[in-house]
Every structure is written in structure tokens, then in C-alpha cells.
Amino acid sequence: MWKKIITFSGIFAIFLVFFISLDDNDVQFELFLENSRPHIGAVYPMEMGIDGQGIKIAVIDTGVNFEHPDLLGIGGDGKILGGYDFIENDNFPQDTNGHGTQVAGIIAADGEKTGVAPKSKILAYRVSEDGEAVSSDLIIKAIKQAIIDEADIINISLGVDIIHDEIDNAVNEAVNSGIVVVVAAGNSGPDEETIGSPGANPNAITVGATYNDIDSSIVSTLQIGEKQFQVLPMLGTEIISDKIMAEIEFGGFGRDQDLKNSDVRGKIVLVERGGETEDEIVFFSEKEQAAASNGAKAIIVFNNEPGIFYGELIHEFIPENYTPSIPAISMTQEDGLMIKEMLNVNTIGTIDVFNHPDFVAMFSSRGPVSPFYEKPDLVAPGVFVETTSLGGQYNITSGTSYAAPHATGAVALLLDKKPELTPHEIKSKLITTSNLVTDPFGNEFSMNTGGAGRINVKNALDSELIILPPSLRFDLSTEKNSETKYIKINSDKLDEKFDIKFSNFTNVNLDYDLQDNLLYVTSKLTSDKIGESEGRLFIKHNEIVHQIPIHIRVSEATVKITKDNGELFFEIIKPFEWTYAKISAINKETLEKRSISFSPNNIIPLKIYQSGDYWIEVKISTHEKIFDVFDSKIIDSSLENKMSMFSILENIERPVIILTIIIIIVGVFGTRILRN
Hints:
The protein is α/β, with parallel strands linked by helices. Helix content is 20%, strand content 30%. An eight-stranded mixed β-sheet has the order 10-9-16-12-13-14-15-11, sandwiched between helices. Strands 3-4-2-6-7-8-17 form a seven-stranded parallel β-sheet, sandwiched between helices.
């Protein structure tokens, strides 16, 4: 059985959480952990009698503790309708790890804690013992069982760190059966391209993690001139009432002996993580205390290796009477060394530390996963979430594993109100009614980081619009300087006025034409600038602002595509000589991919044997570089049901064919030699 270590553990923590007895010198962390539910607007439905009643949710995880008082009972009238243990191969998927119980509690707890959809029921499928390793085969089996058991929603807070075709096929089968599939993005951020299966699947709702609406959701900023730096507040740093603006001074490793020889009074001190030797341990609390005692206003610690880190001022080795007194923040090695080089002149920095619940957690996995759609789709609270645990207890936990069930609960509430909604319609409602999320400087997170935004259940329930597709992509070039696409707006009140606006793009003009329920959007290139940009289409209807993500690509070339009875013919329009091209067509529904390669002197058609909506990807090689051009086409194929072995072979890369032939020849001759 093929196995893969999952990309994210179920119990991922950003910081250590300390519970310290009340004392004048102790630092207190106010953790209002049940704020995540009202933060996504999930209290409002309860006032309307919408609570997930009658909705069946499959939790594919480490099982569920069905003896917990908030999740009590299995079978019959119990909270857990049933399920299956794919580890022990029995009908009692009891959780021995806690991960699945924590996920289930966020969705459906109905007791001391209240889940997002407290009256929904759980189907528990145990596919992992420890929440850290899972068989792809078991994920697939659990998805198929959820289809048989007629689940309404599937929550998967596990996954693998690659694109896995069989998992994707199972997810597609579930969605085609009318089941909404919600998955965690993973905890491999902040690096890009860290979302694997099933999170990478375009038909799933993939959820990243934001901070929570609690006092401890603190962020920090550092700005020098116009330059904005990514920094993180250390655990124990508190919100400041006013920004700190001061000269930056380098202070070595930030030890007392380093700072006594530096002029840091009234300044921001920049220090390096660690000490002079590998064996020297210098706690961040020591660096902060030394900086404060020498009169510094704040301290910045840059990493001594690539990447950023979370520092902890509060830990078990601090002196009994220690209390942080100045802001302490961390940054990458690269940024720290850059600032150090700037300090030969008078360098003024500005630091701020404040509460920011919608900050996308650094651990949350990022896209891109495809040039044709964005991942993650959405974000939800996934930091310091209090939920059900083993032994009838409750636990504070962090990770995208716990952001996903917030979305799953939201889906249950939508289905409770309108059970006729399809998976794609539900996904659209959540995307188009979400709240935009921003970094500490107020800049919108890229869609590869924050998706469309943070879930807003109230808006999704109150919205009278279903917008399909919920996002738009335009592919332009100097030869193809305009493109028109449309979205379909389904509503019973289309006669009402829409207020329609666009984000400002620097290189395109956007315009629209509303005809009945079709909104035609035209993008027109205004400059020759090559690259990608993001923005939004905003549709205000009945006081709800719906936002539709827009992605615009401007390429160096254009590929003209003509269709003829299931064959695609390509003409590369270019301002330069090209040597080689590979063209792929990906079926949007099945994700089946067909490809051909050709040269300028040997251009051949690509045969499509299944009608449908296709993404087109073209890789063009010149003598100097390789670049991509993208498009999409609806293809009505006359070649359906005519797939032959030859048609399969023509889609296989030439080296694979050659290798196969060699293996066959060697095998034949080897057999003859052995016989002789």
C-alpha cells in the first residue's frame, strides 16, 4: 500500500500557550477562544433557527471520540451516526489521537461548546492513527464509503504533499454525486506551491488558516522609508498604543555585553539570533531584557539561517520576576542583513504592534497549484481554537486542520437553509460573499495566500445571488489585446439594480454589459507590460457586496486556436523565432490531460475525444527561454467513443514510447536467449 507522510500534522501550533497563575508580575493571555464562531458570522443563523439539522457530515480523520459529552453517542439518536475504522476494519471509529475529535467539535459540538452547525450529524471514518501519517488508499476508500453512506459534506483535514490522481478522482466522484468536499490547505507555509491532494483539486473547497478574533492575535510591522518588511511579534510582546519611530542601531547578538558598547538608548536595536558560537544559548528574553535595560525602545532579532521564525519571550527558563517591557519582533536573515548594510547612514524605522484577527497564519500552505484556478479558495480561523478533545476534555489548537471545519460547518448551515444548492453553487456563495483579508500594512493578501477571503456565513446566507463561475481569468497579449468573458447571475430578483465596480488595474481597462442574467466582462490591454495581476469585480445587491476575484495574465505571444470536429489546430503568433511547442488540453471536469509536441515545420492537430470545457496550456521554447501561454475552449468533439490504442499512444511523450519499444525488444530477445 502506497503511503505518504502528510504535509500537515493535525495538531500544529504556532506558539506555545502558557497558563500562569495570577500574579502582578505575570503576563496574561486573554484567549477568548469561542470567538471564532461569531467571527465568521455563524451565530446569526442560530437566531433564525438554522443549525445544520438533518445534514450528514463525513469526517475523514483519526476517528471521533463519540463518548465526549458534546459529541455523545454513536448510531441511532447519537451525534455520530456511524462510520468505519479503516485501520482496525470495524464499525467503531473511536479516536485515540484527538485530531478527528477536535475537527468534529468545531463542526458539530452541541454541549458545553457549540460548533458552527451544532445540530448536524457526523459520519466518522478513521484513516489515520496519529494524525501525521495516512495512506492515500484509505483516504480514497473513505471518500467512496461516504458516497455510499449518502453524506452531504465531506471534511478532510489530512492529505499528501503531492498531486495524487486517484485521490482527485475520488473527490471528483463525490462532487459529481452532489457532495460538498471541504479540505485543509496544509501547514507547509509560508513557502509557495505547498498544497497537495486533495487540497489542490479544483472541485474541492480548500481552506487556509487565519488568526482568531482574540486578544492574542497580534501582528507587527516595520517600515524604513517606503520599504515594508515582514516581521513577527514574539510571544509575550504586547500591543502598543503608538507607533515607535526611532533610529536603528546594530547591537551584535543582543547580549548585555554587546549593548553596553553600543549607543542604543532611545533607538531600535537590531541583533542577530543566537550567539558567537553554536553552543552559546542566548534566550530571546535575555536579548529583550538587555535591550530594555540599556534604554532601547524596541528590539529586532533577525534569523541566523534562511527563513523567518516565531520567537518566545515567555518560556520555562525565564527569571521569576521577568516581564517583557519593549516590543520584540523577528525577521528573516536576508532582511536583517539588508538593514544592517543600511546602517552606515542615519536609518529611521517605524514599528507597530497591534491586533489583526484576519492575518493569514505563516504556517498556512500557499498556492499556486495550477495556472487555471486559485488555491486556497478561502480562509477561516485556524489559530488558538478551543474545541473538543479526548477524555471529555477540551483543547486549544492551531492549524489549517481546524480552519477547514469552520467552512464545513458553514456549508451545513447553507444546506440547512437551501438543500437544493449544488456543490459548485455553495462554493460560489462562500467565495463571493467572503471578507477580504490583508497583511499588517493593509495590503490584500495574494489569492495564492488568502484565497478569495475569510468566510462570512451571514453574508452567504443572506445573499440572494448565485454567481457562476465565482472568479474570472483573462489571458492577453499584444496580439490579443482584448478578451470578453461572462458570469451567470442566478437570482429571483434580477430586476433589482446592481451596483457594479472593478478594482483598479495598471495595465488593463475593464468594462461590463449586463444582459438579463449574464454579465459580460471585457478586459482591454492598455500597456505592453508582461506579467500577472489580481483584482476584483464587486457587485452590490441588497447591501451585500459580492466580490469576484479577477486574474489577468499578459503574455509575450498569442496562440490562435481553431476547432474542427474534435481536432484543435494551433497557430503561434509571435514577434520572435520559436523552436518547439508543447500544447496540453485539460478537461475541467475530469482533469484528464492530452498533449502534443511540435516544431514550426511540423505542426499537427491535437485530437480531443471527449466533449467538454478545456483549459489550454502552451509551452513555447525559443533559443533563449521557455514561457507559457494559456487559454480555454469549449469543445464539441465528433471523436467521442472513438478512442483507440493509437489515440492513446499519440498522447504519450515520444521518449516514453521509445523506452517502451526498447523494453519490448529487449524482453523478446532476452526470452529467446534464455530458451536457447
